[in-house]
Amino acid sequence: MAQVMIEDDKKLWDLWLKQKDREACDDLVRLYLPLVHYHVQRIASGLPKNVNRDELYSHGHYGLFDAIEKFNPERDLKFDTYASFRVRGAIIDGLRKADWLPRSMREKVKKVDAVVEKLEQLLGRNVTVLEIAHELGMTEAEVTQIQMEQFTANMLSIDEYTQEQDKSDTFMATIVDEKTLTPEQKLMDDLTKKELVEHIRSLNEKEQLVISLFYYEGLTLTEIGEVLNLSTSRISQIHSKSIARLKQAFSKKIK
Q1: What is the architecture, at CATH level 2, of domain 103-155?
Q2: What are 48-59's pLDDT values in tens digits?
Q3: pLDDT digits (tens, 9 = 90+) for 30-44
Q4: Among residues 55, 53, 68, which one has the least CA distance to residue 20?
Q5: Thinking of the domain 7-97, which architecture would CATH place it in?
Q6: CA distance 131 to 160
Q7: 217 Cβ neighbours under 8 A, 6+ residues apart
Q8: What span, in angstroms and rounded, lies between the C-alpha atoms of 84 and 63?
Q9: Are 53 and 98 in contact, with CB atoms under 8 Å apart?
Q10: pTM of the predicted model, to two decimals?
Q11: CA 225 to CA 242: how far, in whole Å?
Q12: CATH says 183-254 is which class?
């Protein structure tokens, strides 16, 4: 999202950056609130309906304030781009720490779990959704929905501690990491990254910026176009040309 910096905006930034004027800071927050609304809408579209959007806005506001606090105008990066990264990060971090299930749904999950345990002990096998629904006086669709809500919430609970005795590990620690590199692989990976950085520095300033915004800041080509005031097709051309030059540089290295 590109913001046009008008004279009043410059005055606000001057007051904040040079004098740390709190009123100027508040005005900047209000000025860039559309960024928060934009990212909340975008992230919320992929979340369950029971996720409270007010909490997403709260996380986003924190990210925006953090961006204003830490923004360095001497970097060759527009505030909109920097703030977008901070706002998205704050919202996602907030989601990781939150429990998505409201109390009413949590109670239903406990009832389903209790019935499953009871029936499995009684029948000596895994039970079906129909058997669970019959025991609870619910429909199969209701039981399935409860189980899906529980599954969705548990995906964000990997930072919790396991219930095993004599252990203080989180669920995250129990996940087998099959992507960890061996020392030899890590060395090769570090060397490749070092070469890549050197090749990227050989690109012109605009090409470097497009690569940085796309791969490091996570912006789409359209968003990059808005930041640089260029069309999406032009940004696509710059991106393709940059990738082609990098591939050519690596090909020469291999030969």
Answers
A1: Up-down Bundle (1.20)
A2: 666 778 888 999
A3: 999 999 999 898 888
A4: 68
A5: Orthogonal Bundle (1.10)
A6: 31
A7: 81, 84, 85
A8: 9
A9: no
A10: 0.41
A11: 16
A12: mainly alpha
